[in-house]
Write a structure and sequence with these properties.
The chain has 2 helices and 4 strands; from the N terminus they run ββααββ. It has helices at 33-45, 50-73; strands at 4-5, 14-30, 78-90, 93-107. A 4-stranded mixed sheet has the order 1-3-4-2.
């Protein structure tokens, strides 16, 4: 079985055989001055600020990766009930947090 990451508490077709506990992964990212200039211009004319969309996408991926690493250290083969949180750390910097419950799953027969 591949490592499973899901927002579901009880994924269909699997049985939780061991709960290992809470796992987290986070990253704090600062804005980039070049991207800020492009974003400011886009803010004037409207539309999606793709520079920030990409930054957040990369941040979420890194937070998930770190959460999975923590879960694997505990012997998990899945993280269930995954959620995300964000917080402003200071002007121009924000934290992205991924968290969930590390478990050992087995396929139901």
């Amino acid at each position: 079985m591949e490592f499973l990451v899901t927002t579901l508490e009880n994924p269909p077709g699997y049985r939780i055989i061991k709960v290992l506990g809470l796992v987290t992964g986070n990253t704090v990212r600062a804005r980039h001055i070049g991207k800020d200039i492009a974003a400011s211009l886009r803010n004037i004319v409207g539309g999606e600020i793709k520079e920030y969309t990409e930054l957040l996408k990369q941040s979420r991926s890194l937070a998930i990766e770190r959460m999975i690493e923590e879960a694997k250290k505990l012997g998990a083969n899945a993280v269930v009930g995954v959620r995300f949180g964000t917080a402003s750390i200071m002007g121009g910097a924000a934290e992205i947090l991924a968290y969930g419950t590390a478990v050992v799953l087995e396929k139901e027969e």
